[in-house]
User: Which sequence fits this backbone?
């Protein structure tokens, strides 16, 4: 079956002497793997349409009961050149792609997540603010999309007065009272970090980069997401690209 669909390139690896195997997130069919024969040749017909983060219109042969499909053509729709001009923006974009790769199920359509990923990359491409805030909002929305939402305003105002840090239940997805905590799986969030997450959770994507996050707070937010997604996915989860932000 010949498929024409919009897709976001998640990952590209070399294959053989001149080809690439791509992990793609398609609008109509979810996550798939395709082989682009000759993609690494100097005069490749695919051009820059297969670079990670690119939004492209792809045509490929989708084979029944096969995990790898053959790419026929690719035309670039959006290239995020501004992201590539900033190491910080690039790192945040790659961490977003990493999170999608680790959570998406093959062949499972998810249009809402596709549009969220696309809009997040667009914001990263044009922002002059804090890209890590865009990454953070994407992770919160990703968890919601996958069915295990996070809430950071549970009795928030009352708890702020009483403590410098708070217990976030990984099981329930919200702050719990430390004295009555019965959760075996939790993460301790500092007062300042909780305030940032609460603010980001309520922000719009086009405005969230105005929220500043210090380097130390970034690390705690990153560690929190690792623990939260690992718990709910029941497998190791992480962000290899985070090291570029240090």
Assistant:
């Amino acid at each position: 079956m010949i498929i024409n669909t919009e897709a976001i390139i998640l990952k590209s690896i070399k294959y053989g002497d001149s080809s690439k195997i791509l992990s793609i997130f398609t609008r109509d069919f979810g996550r798939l793997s395709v082989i682009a024969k000759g993609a690494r040749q100097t005069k490749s017909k695919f051009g820059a349409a297969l670079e990670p983060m690119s939004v492209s219109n792809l045509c490929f042969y989708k084979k029944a009961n096969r995990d790898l499909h053959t790419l026929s053509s690719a035309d670039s729709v959006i290239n995020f050149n501004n992201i590539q001009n900033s190491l910080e923006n690039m790192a945040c974009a790659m961490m977003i792609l990493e999170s999608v790769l680790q959570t998406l199920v093959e062949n499972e359509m998810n249009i809402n997540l596709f549009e969220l990923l696309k809009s997040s990359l667009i914001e990263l491409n044009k922002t002059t603010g804090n890209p890590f805030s865009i990454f953070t909002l994407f992770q919160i929305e990703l968890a919601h999309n996958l069915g295990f939402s996070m809430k950071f305003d549970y009795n928030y105002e009352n708890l702020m007065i009483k403590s410098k840090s708070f217990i976030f239940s990984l099981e329930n997805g919200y702050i719990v009272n430390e004295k009555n905590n019965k959760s075996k799986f939790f993460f301790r969030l500092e007062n300042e970090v909780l305030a940032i997450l609460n603010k980001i959770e309520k922000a719009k994507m086009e405005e969230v980069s105005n929220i500043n996050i210090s380097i130390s707070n970034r690390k705690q937010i990153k560690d929190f997401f690792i623990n939260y997604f690992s718990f709910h996915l029941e497998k190791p989860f992480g962000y290899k690209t985070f090291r570029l932000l240090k």
